[in-house]
Amino acid sequence: MFERSKITQACEQFALRLQRTIGDSRVIDDPDILEQYATDKSHCEGVFPHLAVRARNEQEIAAVLRLASEYGVPVVPRGAGTGKSGGAIPFYGGVVLDTTRLKSIVEIDKENLLAVVQPGVITGEFQAQMESEGLFYPPDPNSLESCTLGGNVAHNAGGPRAFKYGVTREYVLGVRAALMGGELISPGKRTVKGVAGYDVTALMVGSEGTLGVFTEITLKLVRTPTELSTLLIPMPSEEAAGMAIAKIVAGGLVPRVLEFMDGVVVDVLRQKGIAGVSKSTHALILAEIDGNSEMHVEREVLQLAELCENSGAEEIFVAKHGGDREKLWAARRVMSDALAETAKHKVSEDIVVPRSEAPRLLAGLKKISKHYGVSVPSYGHAGDGNYHVNVLWDDDGFEPSAVVRDIFELTLSLRGTITGEHGVGLSKKPYLPLEQSANLIGVQQAIKRALDPSGLLNPGKIFTE
Amino acid sequence: MFERSKITQACEQFALRLQRTIGDSRVIDDPDILEQYATDKSHCEGVFPHLAVRARNEQEIAAVLRLASEYGVPVVPRGAGTGKSGGAIPFYGGVVLDTTRLKSIVEIDKENLLAVVQPGVITGEFQAQMESEGLFYPPDPNSLESCTLGGNVAHNAGGPRAFKYGVTREYVLGVRAALMGGELISPGKRTVKGVAGYDVTALMVGSEGTLGVFTEITLKLVRTPTELSTLLIPMPSEEAAGMAIAKIVAGGLVPRVLEFMDGVVVDVLRQKGIAGVSKSTHALILAEIDGNSEMHVEREVLQLAELCENSGAEEIFVAKHGGDREKLWAARRVMSDALAETAKHKVSEDIVVPRSEAPRLLAGLKKISKHYGVSVPSYGHAGDGNYHVNVLWDDDGFEPSAVVRDIFELTLSLRGTITGEHGVGLSKKPYLPLEQSANLIGVQQAIKRALDPSGLLNPGKIFTE
After folding, report:
1. Mean pLDDT of A155-184
2. Which own/partner contact pairs does A252-255 have at CB distance under 8 Å and 24+ positions apart?
3. Where a domain ends, among B79, B101, B123?
4. Residue B464 falls within a domain, yes or no?
5. Taking CB atoms and an 8 Å cut-off, how many pairs form between chains A and B?
6. pTM for the full model?
7. Are residues A290 and A211 in the same domain?
8. Cβ contact (<8 Å) for A440 and B197?
9. Which of residues 303 through 362 in chain A touch B, CB cutoff 8 A?
10. ipTM of this complex > 0.95?
């Protein structure tokens, strides 16, 4: 769609104009820095951007979008680059627009339970600040220590707590965004209700930087629950774990976290000497229950424990305080890296199936593993039916795309979705037509053209052209 | 935008083709029926449609949209016609597409807590059916005994329970919709998480029949809470009620219902002899607390009661069972009609302000009432800051638009929104530019053109052209 040579030419003129507009020092062409902007936490291969801008404010963001539009330069918005689907990597070059310098918490409104933030605020830092005010921002993507709220909103990030609290989308009341061309819009509201016009906010959430660049975000908060208990439950088999999880959900319990780790993951954790993983452990459940009544939380902890015992759990570890809770989380925290160490290559998908289809998913994954002779461990947010399915292999010549396609086809045959958290970006765009009809993709592309007629904002993402 | 004579001509040819396609008897031109389709529960004046179709299935809906597109005929989708903003009334004539005949509950999936319904299912009937299965669909617009789920989704309906459970949007996992032209799309998912592509579902929710016509809706359900208590709390003043509500919210209590009725409303209710309204009552709070633990619900009832007593309540009525609960709801149920009886004319707006701004809103409304010499009673979903503000007058020559504009300007000065539940439709379209910038409205119109280039789907709604 875009020729590299034309973009190179456009970028030269664009860079000169931009330097005059926002200052020489703002426009980065240092190849070492540009190299960093050519990768993220996915396995996608992007290309180097021609240049980069670390914007300091909304005016600079708007200026980049206005001039890029004028000169025909692709713009790739970028937060901390922690994405797993290549959303922040240039596909055609152009300019990377880094928003991590916009890191102010603009406003905290305790009475109305909302905060206004700039896109570059680190999620974990925001959460810590809110907690010090007695407030709680639940979405907790795995990368929360380094990812930005702007990136979270662009990808509608999830995390373990989504089972009780929902994903990022549920917490975005409104955004302020610059469109390609530099115009600013402020869809949304500061109230919990509001139905004036189309829900443009919801459209921007999860649009992966292809419709606009956030300059400000209004987030809904809740009050920090006063009580919290963490449970780590070693299970004798995956089936037993599945049964326990089904009983927990069917029993109407809503733990804020309900995580599952399969037998392969447990074997790796056992080798690492992780606490709680014994010889007879063949699956793990990690759960957290919170609330404002100590008695109520304790009762739910007992109920959950009992359901797990009825499904075969022999020992259950419970912790209520910081350090002790962190020990129980150790298994979950080290898992991804520990898995990666077991093989030369790893890809990780983030599929979702209707909760009741989990046993069929796990059985199907075992067949796929056997068929291709690769390890396919999975773990994830069992309460939501959201599993991180990994493919591990050593042979440099092995091409995992057939395995990945089989995993997606299995998922879709169970009426699931190919991505629950990571988004489509570059990594899943060839697979989107497996899930969505040509009509539906056509509608999305028409929306894209409506907001970005030149197609210059994060081009090459989500849709194959 | 559309000339009546041209539409009349187009409709003649369209009617012939449509009769050949879906059968003579399906196409309605009986003026008595068409007259019914020229009104809804708003005070808007629409025009008669040229014809109407009571579709029986998706194929007929798609056929109407395909042929209307071909002949240039405006299409006005319609549920039960209970809307309050004129969304279902023709503005240019054309064909009314009535979807109330599509009234099947297609699927109930208890394990995954979802149901698939056709758009014509009556909300209250759906809720009753779900409750008989131990399931709960929370959104409860006031018209739930007659309104349809299709209409609810088209307007993102709210209701008293939104304070705890959120509005319709939170329960729509996916839709199946026919676009102008007849193409079908199925955005959304059957899982609680999913981020594949843009959130087209969220865009369709609340689009007021201007982007597509729903043929099927996938709704998220929750489990029926086992415990429920209703409280009616007469308060000595509006200020005392406001203080109590602020304390309830600040205390972290989340009753599922938290309604407020002001002094003017109370006076009208007192004249009606409504139970609980005494001489010293000058405001009312109606609250409901639900949950799965009797003890927990009882404790919250006591907490809420205590906060109200601390703010001046002398007597609190509590009920736990059907008939007794209904008695406490009597005030809320009769209120709208009782108010209407007190004057020859009434308009009702549904504004929202950030919760903390409620005292300033009520004070401002009193000033407006005094300035214009009209009664401006208000009641509503105080927990959400969502107030139904009424203007009552007797003089046939009085024009309420200046009052309405002042109410909206007051609302927006408090950083609220002009509509929390009813939508923009015809009634609020002149006021949308008070709330939203030209850029934001432009983006929405661009999205509209992307999905409906001919502008034939529910034309004249939301946007002034």
Report:
1. 97
2. A252/B223, A252/B292, A253/A289, A253/A300, A253/A303, A253/A304, A253/A307, A254/A163, A254/A164, A255/A163, A255/A164, A255/A287, A255/A288, A255/A289, A255/A300, A255/A304, A255/A383
3. B101
4. no
5. 240
6. 0.97
7. no
8. yes
9. 352-356
10. yes
